[in-house]
Write a structure and sequence with these properties.
Elements: H1 2-21, E1 33-39, E2 46-49, E3 60-62, E4 81-85, E5 92-102, E6 105-108, E7 122-125, E8 128-129, E9 131-136, E10 145-152, E11 193-194, E12 199-208, E13 211-219, E14 232-236, E15 246-247, E16 264-273, E17 285-291, E18 305-310, E19 319-320, E20 323-324, E21 348-358, E22 364-370, E23 374-376, E24 382-383, E25 398-399, E26 408-415, E27 420-421, E28 432-433, E29 444-449, E30 457-466, E31 476-477, E32 480-486
Antiparallel strand pairs: 1-9, 2-7, 3-6, 4-5, 4-7, 5-6, 8-15, 9-14, 10-13, 10-16, 11-14, 12-13, 16-17, 18-21, 19-20, 21-30, 22-29, 22-32, 23-24, 23-31, 25-28, 26-30, 27-29
């Protein structure tokens, strides 16, 4: 009996020691699941240097094609803001890319400054992103914290928080309160981080092996626990008009030009700390981030310009420029305005319709001039250009409502849908008019839009002629030359 009791006690002691040596797994030590980091912009930053041949005032920028993170223009785009270093000071000057010429040249909107033209001067275009990290915690620890590590550079010569794109990680951005620095990014702050639980902070870098990582912390606070088994979302960065974002890396050091289009992949980590700030190693999980060049998609829309002269809406009995057109209006076509036999000492009115449309960024202009005065083809006698009721010229409009006893000829216009016309008849009983300029050097604008029209624009040209009772009999003729020009 004693032996049985002794054996039982021995077994109980053995099991007790076993539990001490091999404790039951703690439910707090389980890594998160469903981990991802989605970037709002996964485009690599651009980091090139100037090649030879750049001169002050030039808008064409030549880059070096070897030995730099970016050795082509393939990751630059129209509208990008590039920073070019200075030869006489710390900092950079900003230029806007207006076109990509080829893989070694791009164009900017203003001429290059002399201090930005030296060979090997850096050329950068930073790309930044909001990181949205989702994960499902499988453990909690009262008063603990969750730590998010984003890859930072450890490369000699690179600084992980100067606003310059790095080749081995994401840059934290520069501290603008510290005065002028080289880069364009602004420092990520706690206010730029939205934690799923706890209070956000942005720390210094920490090492994992030989690599360094930016530390973003969500501290639960004393006695607080986090939910378990439900999706949590951490957002690092805010819209640039209100906050800051991490700057995406430039192409990595191990990546040849021939690998453009192959993503650079970086690790990130989620780690769990207990209330004593000790890492719970079993809760650590690793994820991956990929950044790559954006794809330039190009297409060409050929320039168009359409200009039409016709007789639509100006037939006999129609109204143009406030005047009811007579029976001779039926003879008006796209190529002639045939007044026929004039009524002497009276207004004779005919009209044509002009239509213009273009896809030009800067719109169009239509000009007109006469090649000669209205001239008797037999004798050379002329009907003079109008001075209206005594006050108009080819460049200045005037009222022409009373003087029909003298021999004169000119025009007015009725705007149907054009942005701008050269003269407007004025409405009602008014008839404001001009004379045509004589010769190409005196051509005058009669229709214009300085931007791309949204649709075809139209106006009526109303021709008016008077003949005194003593005007020499005969057939009179002139030519009106219309020129439509688009500005591209």
């Amino acid at each position: 009996m004693v032996k049985k009791i002794t054996l039982t006690l021995a077994l109980l002691m053995l099991f007790s020691v076993g539990f001490l040596i091999f404790p039951k797994d703690n439910i707090k030590s389980v890594p998160p699941t469903n981990v991802s980091d989605v970037l709002s912009n996964s485009q690599l930053s651009y980091f090139a240097r100037l090649g030879a041949g750049n001169t002050a005032g030039s808008t064409f920028i030549r880059i070096a094609t070897s030995g730099n993170p970016s050795n082509t223009t393939n990751n630059l785009f129209d509208g990008d803001i590039v920073g070019i270093g200075k030869s006489n000071a710390i900092g950079l000057d900003l230029y806007t890319v207006s076109d990509i010429g080829n893989t070694a040249v791009f164009q900017v909107g203003v001429g290059l400054s002399a201090v930005n033209s030296a060979v090997d001067t850096f050329v950068i275009a930073t790309r930044s992103a909001i990181h949205t990290i989702t994960f499902t915690p499988q453990s909690n620890d009262a008063g603990g914290a969750w730590e998010f590590l984003i890859k930072a550079t450890s490369r000699t010569g690179e600084i992980d928080n100067d606003g310059m794109p790095d080749q081995e990680g994401f840059d934290l951005g520069r501290d603008i309160s510290a005065g002028p620095t080289i880069g364009t990014g602004t420092r990520l702050k706690a206010a730029d981080v939205t934690c799923p639980f706890g209070t956000a902070s942005v720390g210094t870098t920490t090492a994992i092996g030989s690599s360094y990582y930016h530390v973003i912390l969500c501290d639960l606070g004393a006695g607080v626990t986090n939910p378990v088994g439900s999706t949590a979302t951490l957002v690092i960065g805010r819209a640039l008009n209100t906050g800051s974002q991490l700057i995406n890396p430039a192409p990595s050091t191990s990546r040849p030009v021939s690998s453009e289009g192959t993503a650079d992949v970086y690790n990130f980590f989620i780690r769990h700390r207990d209330a004593s700030d000790v890492l719970i190693d079993a809760d650590t999980v690793q994820g991956r981030i990929a950044v790559v060049e954006s794809v330039r998609v190009t297409a060409t829309v050929d320039p168009t310009l359409t200009f039409i002269i016709d007789n639509s809406g100006v037939g006999a009995g129609s109204t143009a420029c406030g005047i009811t057109l007579g029976s001779a209006a039926a003879n008006t076509t796209a190529t002639q305005v045939a007044f026929g036999s004039l009524q002497l000492a009276a207004f004779n009115d005919l009209a044509q319709r002009l239509s213009c449309v273009t896809n030009s960024r800067y719109g169009y202009v239509v000009t007109a001039y006469e090649n000669k005065n209205m001239t008797n083809i037999s004798s050379g006698t002329t009907i003079p250009d109008t001075n209206c009721d005594g006050t108009c010229t080819p460049t200045t409009a005037g009222a022409w409502v009373t003087d029909n006893s003298n021999s004169e000829w000119g025009y007015s216009m009725q705007n149907l849908s054009a942005n701008t016309v050269g003269v407007s008849y004025g409405g009602g009983a008014s008839f404001n008019a001009k004379a045509f300029g004589l010769g190409a050097s005196n051509a005058q604008m009669i229709m214009r839009n300085t931007a791309t029209p949204t649709s075809t624009e139209r106006a009526l040209v109303c021709y008016r002629i008077t003949a005194s009772t003593t005007q020499e009999a005969g057939k009179y003729e002139s030519q009106i030359v219309y020129t439509a020009t688009a500005t591209f």
